[in-house]
């Protein structure tokens, strides 16, 4: 989300970057989901890419919202703190913008992830999957709380933390990190670490709830928390699939941090001219 772009421009950049990320990293997302709901993993690409359409719409829409809302919130922060658009936002300001943008995106992302997880689990066509879900309309926002908390923290991990880390590295160690490209890898590792391990318990609860729309094993958010916590793995149960998710997160943070900048300059070059 660039302060150089307006809300529409940030939205189109976010949508493009989100779809690119999904098409590249869908196998890692599939393996994470199957591990969380204790289903066997297949390495058949046709199975690994089940639900990729719903996931692409999900990530495209969510990232579009996160870039647009995040960009708007950043501009509001600048306006409310003196109007100096040349200064860098503080870490606290970046994080608050990320939390707001991520929470807003969960209203779209949570139902779409529900469709993807149901497709991955049962292998049914898109329309049949939706029909099964809406048999009970309450299902549509099943797992939303977990998705909202996860998206809020994830957005901080890929939109708020990397720019701050890059700036700090280039300022404090310019001999090792003379430019953005050199600083992008450690920024992605740190952003991915934050985004994964801070959010994974909420993601596990959400995924378990969305994988069980019949509520045979998992009920409400609190009941699902208690069920996982009381299992044989204890607190480690919240981190099922974390290895796959961290691998995806690091790659995703790197892709989004890089592509968000490059795609914005490609689509709207006039916005970046001095």
Explain this structure.
The chain is mainly alpha-helical and 274 residues long. The protein has nine helices and no strands. The chain has helices spanning 7-36, 45-48, 52-80, 91-122, 126-134, 144-172, 180-210, 221-229, 242-267. α1 runs antiparallel to α9, α4 crosses α5 and α6 packs antiparallel against α7 (180-210). The model has no long low-confidence stretch (mean pLDDT 89).
Comma- or semicolon-separated keywords:
single chain, mainly alpha, 73% helix, 9 helices, 274 residues
| Low confidence ranges | none
So how many helices? Answer: 9
- The topology string of helices and strands comes to HHHHHHHHH
Q: What's the number of extended β-strand segments?
A: 0
Q: Percent of residues in beta strands? A: under 5%
Class derived from helix and strand content: mainly alpha
Instruction: Give a short account of the largest sheet.
Output: none
Query: Roughly what percent helix?
Result: over 70%
Give average pLDDT, whole number: 89
The end-to-end span amounts to: 18 Å
Radius of gyration: 19 Å
Rough outline: globular
């Amino acid at each position: 989300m660039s302060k150089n772009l307006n809300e529409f421009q940030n939205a189109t950049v976010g949508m493009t970057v989100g779809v690119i990320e999904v098409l590249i990293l869908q196998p890692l997302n599939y393996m994470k989901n199957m591990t969380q709901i204790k289903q066997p993993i297949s390495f058949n690409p046709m199975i690994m890419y089940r639900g990729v359409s719903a996931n692409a719409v999900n990530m495209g829409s969510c990232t579009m919202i996160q870039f647009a809302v995040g960009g708007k919130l950043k501009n509001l922060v600048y306006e409310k703190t003196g109007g100096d658009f040349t200064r860098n936002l503080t870490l606290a300001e970046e994080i608050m913008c990320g939390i707001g943008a991520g929470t807003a995106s969960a209203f779209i992302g949570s139902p779409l992830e529900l469709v993807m997880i149901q497709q991955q689990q049962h292998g049914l066509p898109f329309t049949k999957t939706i029909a099964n879900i809406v048999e009970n309309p309450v299902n549509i926002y099943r797992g939303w709380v977990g998705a909202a908390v996860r998206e809020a923290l994830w957005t901080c991990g890929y939109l708020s933390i990397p720019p701050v880390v890059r700036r700090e590295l280039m300022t404090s160690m310019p001999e090792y990190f003379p430019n953005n490209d050199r600083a992008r890898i450690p920024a992605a590792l740190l952003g991915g670490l934050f985004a994964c391990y801070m959010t994974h318990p909420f993601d596990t609860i959400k995924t378990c709830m969305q994988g069980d729309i019949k509520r045979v094993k998992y009920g409400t958010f609190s009941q699902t928390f208690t069920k996982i916590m009381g299992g044989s793995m204890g607190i480690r149960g919240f981190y099922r699939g974390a290895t796959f998710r961290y691998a995806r997160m690091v790659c995703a943070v790197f892709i989004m941090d890089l592509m968000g900048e490059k795609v914005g300059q490609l689509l709207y070059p006039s916005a970046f001219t001095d």
